[in-house]
Amino acid sequence: MRIQYVTSSVSLKRSLENGTEEQRQTVLSIIEDVKKNGDTALLNYTEKFDGVALSSLRVTEEEVALAFKQVNSETINIIREAAENIRDFHSRQVRESWVTMKEDGTILGQKITPIDAVGVYVPGGKAAYPSSVLMNVIPAQVAGVERIVMTSPVGKDGHLPAAVLVAASELGVKEIYKVGGAQAVAALAYGTESVLPVDKIIGPGNIYVALAKREVFGDVDIDMIAGPSEIVVLADETALPNEVAADLLSQAEHDERASSILVTPSSELAEQVALEVEKQLSTLPKREIAEASIRDYGAIYVTSTLDEAIKVVNELAPEHLEIITEDAMEQIGKIKHAGAIFVGRFSSEPVGDYFAGPNHVLPTNGTARFSSPLNVDDFVKKSSIISYSEKALKQNGAKIAAFARLEGLEAHARAVEERLKK
């Protein structure tokens, strides 16, 4: 890994999910095709892109039963325990509606209402991501969403991964469709003969999924346009080089465009981690992917002090941040921008990816400066409640009318004054 000594601001080299104009036009044509031809378009694209000719799109009860036979009991228990942890964490995020009354009889409040229907996109094809099912479905359920639809690209055998179906079934998701890519996003947004439309689409996917979500936003809501995974490790001389290197590589194996960064005031640790990364790379099953990630988007930044290292971290605003320093808990208050903060050497990033409870759907590409992990609030709407009494309108009506005329809106002013007439 390249080592850079820094005394001022740094920028994280990121691979943005912008796509090409050709990819965007492909996505637009797919969306229009699905809007026009519905299920026929979905089946055609599944055969074209996934190489599977399906007779129907919806996952059957028989397929779910078969999935349970293919997954051992230990794995099922792990999924159940992880789900329990995730549900417990998100249940603490629930907000209640509220009202307040003033002395003049004015009633003000906020009504919390769940979104009616949510579509969850689970990436697949070459790999299985049951954790994506848990992290996207559970906060929606905690929020009170009544209808949750899941889509995922089919495998070469014509089925979805067994672990994905088990996770969905354990959560009680019944409406599951074997369709992926931009065509799945279009189906969720606009509906087909089989798939009724939803109000919000969540979940990660490839560049075509990301572009499709961007195109349908406005007709439906989306969670975010997620970029490649990122990790920043903030460490001092107390950190163990082999553990830091392992954590950096845990993100690098995700994608050639993933970013793994060490920020430290210790030049000795920096050199040891650089050597350890090369050593561990040699035995990594996904060596080629991780190697490309480390080469193109990895770095070690060495600062003169820990406080300067923290400034660098805040400039990077990473998706994942690990703090492996002496008195690590004391550093949390200094962190302003990070999607998830892992504190101490025993809190390796995979702990949060799968099991601890907080959501692993996190802001990437520096968007932790202004956005948050997926949470229960993402699945509710907040309606304001305003009830003015006669007394309150008499006290404030003239001021309200004056404000309306300040903006040149005479009808607004008259709407209040009509009520003030004897």
UniProtKB/TrEMBL annotation:
Q: Which residues bind NAD(+)?
A: 121, 183, 206
Please give the SUPFAM superfamilies that the UniProt record associates with this protein: ALDH-like
* Pathway where it operates: Amino-acid biosynthesis; L-histidine biosynthesis; L-histidine from 5-phospho-alpha-D-ribose 1-diphosphate: step 9/9
MF term (GO), any: histidinol dehydrogenase activity
Looking up Pfam families in the UniProt record yields: Histidinol_dh
Q: Which InterPro entries match?
A: Ald_DH/histidinol_DH, Histidinol_DH_CS, Histidinol_DH_monofunct, Hstdl_DH
The record's annotation in PROSITE patterns points to: HISOL_DEHYDROGENASE (PS00611)
Please tell me where Zn(2+) binds in this chain: 251, 254, 353, 412
**Alphabetical keyword list:** Amino-acid biosynthesis, Histidine biosynthesis, Metal-binding, NAD, Oxidoreductase, Zinc
Question: Recorded E.C. number(s)?
Answer: 1.1.1.23
What are the required cofactors?
Answer: Zn(2+)
Which PANTHER family does this chain map to? HISTIDINE BIOSYNTHESIS TRIFUNCTIONAL PROTEIN, HISTIDINOL DEHYDROGENASE HDH
Name by which UniProt lists this protein? Histidinol dehydrogenase
* Native organism: Litchfieldia luteola
Which gene name does the record give?
hisD
